[in-house]
Design brief:
The protein is α+β, with helices and mostly antiparallel strands. The chain has nine helices and seven strands, in the order H-H-E-H-H-H-H-H-E-E-E-E-H-E-E-H. The strands form two sheets. A four-stranded antiparallel beta sheet has the order 1-2-3-4, with helices on both faces. A hairpin with a 5-residue loop joins strand 3 and strand 4. Helix 3 runs antiparallel to helix 4 and helix 3 packs antiparallel against helix 7. The chain starts with a helix and ends in a 16-residue tail after the last helix. The C terminus is likely disordered.
Length: 268
């Protein structure tokens, strides 16, 4: 028989979960999620084109690292079961570290095509210098001493941490988003009706895909600036930037009119 204190501690997570579910059903009719607004715009007969989007966390760029961490966790499990040899451990660690390093560079720096070409030329110049000095073989052999060994649980934990950051970003985007139509833009900043509607004359938009590596991952930025210069611009990191930029161009090029405005009133 557990003591009362242990029973209370054991019940706390279930009480919190139950309270969250109860709160959700109580506020279900008042919650304005991004998905619900998109459905409402789709059913509106006066609006043919719209865009509902949100700002992803830059941690979404670590999806390749998440996938590689899961594969590395599986591979390390096979090593422990003697399906793979122990010599594969540093290889797995090296491949994982390479992908993580590339992801880190994409996340940390804005790399244009010009900067990328300069980096490639610098690497080529370095290897030419090493070749001229006769040090290429020694340099390659020295890389073998960089051994990264993480067990399967460690790789799984890394994948879980990055996945949690991406999930939180997605959940936040359900309540913090912008809905753009030909006539107005709605800026939602909360789970209920907390938001602001801005007419099309009061803001302008542009698409920024200057970061070449971000664009390779399918991401880019939609930047919204306001006529009132006291307001800071909104910069949204969005996925499927090619499709979303086309939708944005089409929306901003049109003006939706109330379909009932052109119907003259009937005489009694």
């Amino acid at each position: 028989m557990w003591p009362l204190s242990k029973i209370i501690v054991f019940a706390v997570p279930f009480l919190v979960l139950g309270g969250g579910i109860l709160t959700f059903f109580m506020l279900k009719k008042t919650i304005r999620t991004r998905l619900r607004v998109g459905k409402q715009l789709q059913e509106d007969p006066d609006i043919n084109e719209w865009l509902v989007t949100f700002d992803w966390s830059r941690k979404v760029l670590y999806v390749p690292t998440i996938i590689m961490s899961l594969l590395a966790s599986l591979a390390m499990g096979l090593v422990q079961m003697d399906v793979l040899t122990d010599s594969m451990v540093p290889v797995i660690g090296g491949v994982w570290f390479t992908i993580f390093a590339i992801n880190f560079l994409v996340d940390e720096y804005e790399v244009s095509i010009k900067v990328l070409l300069i980096l490639i030329l610098c690497v080529v110049a370095m290897f030419l210098w090493l070749h001229f000095m006769g040090w290429v073989e020694s340099f390659v052999h020295s890389l073998r001493h960089i051994g990264i060994e993480v067990d399967w649980m460690g790789y799984l934990l890394i994948a879980g941490l990055f996945s949690m950051a991406v999930l939180i970003s997605y959940l936040r985007g359900l309540f913090y988003y912008v809905a753009i139509t030909p006539n107005y833009m709605n800026i939602q900043t909360g789970p209920t009706e907390t938001g602001e509607q801005v007419s099309r004359e009061e803001y302008s938009t542009r698409v920024d895909t200057g970061d070449f590596l971000e664009r390779l991952f399918g991401f880019g930025r939609i930047i919204i600036t306001f006529r009132d210069h006291r307001r800071q611009p909104l910069s949204l990191l969005v996925g499927r930037i090619g499709k979303q930029s086309q939708m944005l161009e089409s929306i901003r090029g049109k003006l939706a009119m109330d379909r009932h405005a052109s119907i003259p009133p009937q005489e009694p």
